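This week, think about what follows.
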Amino acid sequence: MYARVAAATTAALLGAGALALPSATAHAADQKSAQTSTRTPLSHDRPLVVAHRGASAYAPENTFAAIDKAADMGFRWVENDVQRTKDGELVIMHDDNLKRTTNVEQLFPDRAPWKVADFTAAEIARLDAGSWFDPKYAGQRVPTLKQYMNRVSRNHQKLVFEFKKPELYPGIEKQGLDVLRKTGWLDRHHVKSKLVIQSFSADSVKKVHQLRPDVKTGFLGTPAVADLPEYAKFADQINSTHGSISREYVAAIHANKGPHRKRLEIFTWTVNDAVNARKVAGFGVDGIITNTPDVVRKAVSG
């Protein structure tokens, strides 16, 4: 998620179009993961602290290293981004191109603009997704969704799962849910307490809710207060950028009940400093999504 403020209108909600609101070393990692059964994640339940793309201030985003780092730091909740390759594999990548966080330009210099959707899963598996962040992470790979879910399970973590730009990938919601089911993430235990599926696209969130109404969902944006009841029909959370909210707005969210007849929640993003962490915690948010989970945890638990 980038720092983009989403704006919604009732007319857009009632229209037929998509409502995608604009705004927002591998070996060492493997060694760490083998230790996960002895980790004891720290308790930080209100607000929840969610490691954005893993502990992405300290390890390359959306890699095993990043979620392993979050686990090592004691964080149960991580967030990711899901897109689809040319041959239909779901992979963990924030941008819809591979340029920023891999060495794709060096390996495939004639394939600009290096869109995820223009590369096969086998080609993407060759990319180095760690050296851009720090040479010590050379050899980190872009995980497939199946690989990623198995790693999160191995780490005993919970997940805020984001369908990124679903309008580019028709049917990605059903495909993603199929992977979650096959990796054990749609059983009663996971659905009850370990998974949220979110998107900037209201149509995508609606589709997830239609396909699996038991799954907790989140809409990324800052709808008008008057529109919140409409969103509450299909979203359990309204997850807004921290610069777009106030105590009053959080109270307005909490005044609604989501599709599971529980109070509507808000996870705000991306908060990376103590001042803003304390500010949004004071607003009463339910979760804080952050690149620096240790900073936020310290700020809100003091």
In short: The two ends are 27 Å apart (CA to CA). Residues 2-44 have pLDDT under 50 and may be disordered. The first strand starts at residue 48 and ends at 51.
